[in-house]
Write a structure and sequence with these properties.
By secondary structure, the protein is an alpha+beta fold. It is 36% helix and 21% strand. Strands 10, 11, 12, 13, 14, 15 and 18 form a seven-stranded mixed beta sheet that branches. The chain has a four-stranded parallel beta sheet with strand order 2-1-26-27, covered by helices on one side. Helix 6 (199-208) runs antiparallel to helix 7 (215-225). The longest helix has 21 residues, at 698-718. The chain binds one RNA strand of 86 nucleotides through helix 7, strand 11, strand 15, helix 11 and strand 33.
RNA sequence: GCGAAAGUGGCGGAAUGGCAGACGCGCUGGACUUAGGAUCCAGUCCCGGAGACGGGGUGGGGGUUCAAGUCCCCCCUUUCGCACCA
């Protein structure tokens, strides 16, 4: 009696063996081609979820496949270990953030091991290790030396709930990316990375990635950088010193500027209104605008409002005095915080002008038209021909823009300027669980860097008190806080903030190359050999933040001579979310699977028995009560089945709908193979693949299918169609079941059977490594373990068919099919086609006008229908 | 509003411009069984037909082509991203 397939024991045994063997340890091997396969490292939240399992399955598949293809594969894993949840946990349960983090890492590592992923654990890193974050500090200091780090006081995004500053990228629709509470604006002093210095290069780099990164991601990055070409223009103030500087992309409409709009926070607003009749009104307006929560302001819902400041500015070209207003829709953080308002050619200005009765002046006419301010119902924002614009009259918009820049530069009241939406990256966080910033504030010397020799500035683990009082918890640890000034030796204080955790993840892929190197973040030879990452895999949610920062850091490190390539990730795969059916009761909200009971005509609520709404394709989440844990799936079905299903159920970039029936299908599939192999074990063991050459009949057919499957699986993996690769293997297995009754009675037949089974297992190795290893061992597979075997090639002679089936169409509709020798030419195919009775019948209904032949595939006969008359 | 992607059976999904629906799930029937929620075999887009076969069919409408799920134009829907960026 053949043994049943029982994954639990098999998987544990192989995992232990791989660990003992150090199976996935990897070293630099200049003689061999490298492949760096990387999945985004997780935040150690405590448990793996399905999303993690999915990425690791994809990464492991590629790592294993490339290993079999002969590449020296780097496949590391680590932990994005700093961050707010650890502090929240500390507050909620009184554990230390470090302990909480370490315990979570330990647990998640066990879960990863149970998945059988081929990581080189010797290279494991955790960003909360001083040995890691010292290089954050080192990089910070190098950037400081190069003017890429600076300190300033600015209005920042402040999350009152997390009590911390957020980067622009961390504000989503006016709310905190982590806690979803509304973000407010606050004045605070902190450190900034001058990412804007690389804006152009980051933008240009997007073009180089066009064929290897998802277009979507590149578009998002381009929009985020948001470069626009235009001019800065200074409008002198009427009757007083000073000027209002604006940025515009429509300098060609300067003659149509009828007023100016300043952001409520603009310093000139208060200054200009001071002492005028407008002062009180302006103050009231600014106060109201400031009170508006950021979320409401950026949500685009608010009515455009403004107030006259009482001052006028002078149009530098026309000399006309125009009123200066404060307006709630002008953003302080873009451009100069002030705009010239051209109501005829900007919809926002148009609405504002109509509302407050400000003049509208047309300076661009649409081609062949003439606009009348009085009758306009909307601004004309398109390109056209300049009018009422002095020296620009008659010029098309593009030429007028150039002309205007020349005029402005001639008169020194403006210049060509490029503007970006991208802001510098504020990295100071008023939190504890992060990288200390290696700076000292000295009352005598100012801000002084910590000398390199003193790195790392270790985050103190003792005596920490974490609460929600605000301010950095580090300030309450005197031994950390007080530090002699490195310059004058006098009493000074350390910087009490920690770095944004996105700093940690901006270069971790480089640290994997030389995880224990003491001389620099990465050893030059290691970086030269391993970089760039050949395949990076992770969630689309990092399309902007992490991926942009990583590209920025890699360029900085290139400029420091640490790496050669500017782009860290040669190929990017953004995998889709994992979704699950959800149940919702109108009365009681979302229900878990056990709370939605089977009832009349569907599911009913376990509380009120009302019919339950069943929704599909919703991302797994606790709040929706539709979470399935990978842990449980591995326990019930085994890691191989769980992984196989996640790769089979959907293409990797699309969302994956988890289904109990689906995973059972995969379990059935593996069981089928198991029984097949166990059932024919004698024949398979007796077979010698080399004998297959003499196979005949059904066995030569099997060989052809085996080699075709090999080709298909190889190509599908290469183009990331993992689901169809699995389908192809399923087809081969189905065919093997067709042969169940046929005894392999000759050496050639046994050879063909053995070849099929060997290849089947090797093709599956990247998908179901334990399963493949186990059966490979049972059949006595040569050359060591399945994982170490070479990926099978295919014999072109076996892919060639002696005969091919050619589809015969008449007027594009299939009317028959003929089997002809593969070498047959068009003439022969034609003859065969016209010999077919059915084809002849259809062709006979009219006159043959044309015949199109696609060699070996299709013959289309175009027949002119006989008109009934 | 702007931008991007996508709409194919009951469901997940296949199809370098060349046989639409591979593979899997579900369902139907059969075999083996004391039994089956195990396993194996067969069937499963719609309409007509016993069948051979015929007709229709990839969100809707046009177009290009011998040939369109695939390319082009317009519309509808969904998802995602950005959201007063001057």
């Amino acid at each position: 009696m053949a043994e049943r397939y029982q994954p639990a024991g098999i998987e544990a045994r192989w995992q232990k063996r791989w660990e003992d063997e150090g199976a996935y340890r990897v070293e630099r091997r200049p003689d061999r081609p490298k492949y760096y396969c990387l999945e985004m490292f997780p935040y150690p939240s405590g448990n793996l979820h399905m999303g993690h399992m999915r990425v690791y399955s994809i990464g492991d598949l590629l790592a294993r496949y490339k290993t079999m293809r002969g590449f020296n594969v780097l496949h590391p894993m680590g932990w994005d270990a700093f961050g707010l949840p650890a502090e929240n946990a500390a507050m909620a349960r009184g554990t230390h953030p470090e302990r909480w983090t370490r315990e979570n890492i330990a647990n998640m590592k066990l879960q990863m091991r149970a998945l059988g992923v081929s990581y080189d654990w010797e290279r494991e890193i955790a960003t909360c290790d001083p040995g890691y974050y010292r290089w954050n500090q080192w990089l910070f200091l190098r950037m400081h030396e190069r003017g890429l780090v600076y300190r300033r006081r600015t209005a920042v995004n402040w999350c009152p709930d997390c009590e911390t500053v957020l980067a622009n990228e961390q504000v989503e629709g006016g709310a905190c990316w982590r806690c979803s509470n509304p973000v407010v604006t606050r004045e605070i002093e902190g450190w900034f990375f001058r990412i804007t210095r690389y804006a152009d290069e980051l933008l240009a780099g997007c073009d180089d990635l066009a064929s290897t990164w998802p277009e979507r991601v590149l578009t998002m990055q381009r929009n985020w950088i948001g470069r626009s070409y235009g001019a800065r223009i200074d409008f002198a103030l009427a009757g007083r010193e000073g000027a209002v500087r604006v940025f515009t992309t429509r300098q060609d409409t300067l003659f149509g500027a009828t007023f100016m709009s300043l952001a409520p926070e603009h310093p000139l607003v208060a200054e200009l209104s001071r002492g005028t009749a407008q002062e009180a009104a302006v103050r009231a307006f600014v106060e109201k605008a400031g009170r508006l929560e950021r979320s409401a302001r950026t949500a685009g819902e608010i009515e455009k409002e403004g107030v006259f400041t009482g001052a006028h500015a002078v149009n530098p070209l026309t000399g006309a005095a125009i009123p200066v207003w404060a307006a709630n829709f002008v953003l302080m953080e873009y451009g100069t915080g002030a705009v010239m308002a051209v109501p005829a050619h900007d919809q926002r200005d148009f609405e504002f002008a109509r509302k407050y009765g400000l003049p509208v002046a047309v300076v661009v006419n649409p081609p062949g038209e003439s606009l009348e301010p009085a009758t306009m119902t909307a601004a004309f924002e398109g390109d056209g021909v300049a009018v009422n614009s002095g020296p620009c009259n008659g010029l098309p918009t593009a030429a007028a823009k150039e002309r205007m820049i020349a005029l402005l530069e001639e008169r020194s009241c403006g210049a060509r300027e490029t503007n970006y939406r991208l802001r510098d990256w504020g990295i100071s966080r008023q939190r504890y669980w992060g990288t200390p910033i290696p700076m000292v504030h000295c009352p005598a010397c100012g801000v002084v860097p910590v000398p390199d020799a003193e790195l790392p500035v270790v985050l103190p683990l003792e005596g920490v008190e974490i609460n929600q009082r605000g301010g950095s918890p580090l300030g309450r640890i005197p031994s950390f806080r007080h530090r002699a000034c490195p310059q004058c030796g006098g009493a000074a204080e350390r910087d009490l903030d920690t770095m944004d955790t996105f700093v940690d993840s901006s270069w971790y892929f480089l640290r994997y190359c030389s995880p224990r190197f003491e001389g620099a973040p990465v050893e030059a030879g290691d970086a030269a050999y391993w970089m760039p990452v050949d395949q990076y895999i992770g969630g689309i949610e990092h399309a902007i933040l992490h991926l942009l920062y990583a590209r920025f850091f890699t360029r900085v490190m290139r400029d420091l001579g640490l790496v050669a390539s500017a782009e860290p990730f040669a190929n990017l795969l953004t995998q889709g979310m994992v979704c699950m059916e959800s149940y919702r009761c109108a009365e009681h909200g979302f229900l878990g699977p056990e709370e939605a009971l089977p009832g009349a005509g569907g599911k009913v609520c376990h509380v009120c028995a009302a019919p339950v709404e069943v929704g599909g394709r919703i991302k797994m989440s606790k709040s929706k009560k539709n979470v399935v844990s990978p842990d449980e799936m591995v326990r019930v079905y085994g890691a191989d089945t769980t992984r196989l299903f996640s790769l089979f159920a959907a293409p990797p970039e699309k969302e994956l709908e988890w289904s109990e029936e689906g995973i059972e299908g995969c379990q059935r599939f593996l069981n089928r193979i198991w029984r097949l192999v166990e059932g024919r074990l004698e024949e398979i063991r007796a077979g010698v693949a080399a004998d297959a050459a003499g196979a005949e009949g059904a066995w030569i057919d099997l060989r052809k299918r085996t080699h075709r499957t090999t080709k298909k699986v190889t190509e599908d993996i290469e183009r990331f169609h993992f689901n169809t690769a699995i389908s192809a293997v399923m087809e081969l297995v189905n065919h093997l079941y067709q042969l169940e009754g046929a005894a392999a009675s000759t050496a050639a037949a046994r050879g063909a059977l053995r070849e099929a089974i060997e290849r089947l297992l090797l093709l599956l190795q990247p998908f179901t490594p334990h399963f493949a290893a186990e059966l490979w061992e049972r059949i006595g597979g040569g050359g060591g373990e399945a994982r170490a075997a070479a990926w099978p090639g295919f014999d072109p002679a076996l892919l060639r068919e002696e005969t091919v089936e050619v589809v015969v169409q008449v007027n594009g509709k299939v009317r028959g099919r003929v089997t002809v020798p593969a070498a047959a030419g068009e003439e022969e195919v034609r003859r065969a086609a016209f010999a077919d009775a059915r084809v002849r019948d259809w062709v006979g209904r009219g006159e043959v006008r044309k015949v199109v032949y696609i060699p070996g595939r299709l013959l289309n006969v175009v027949v002119a229908a006989e008109s009934p008359g």
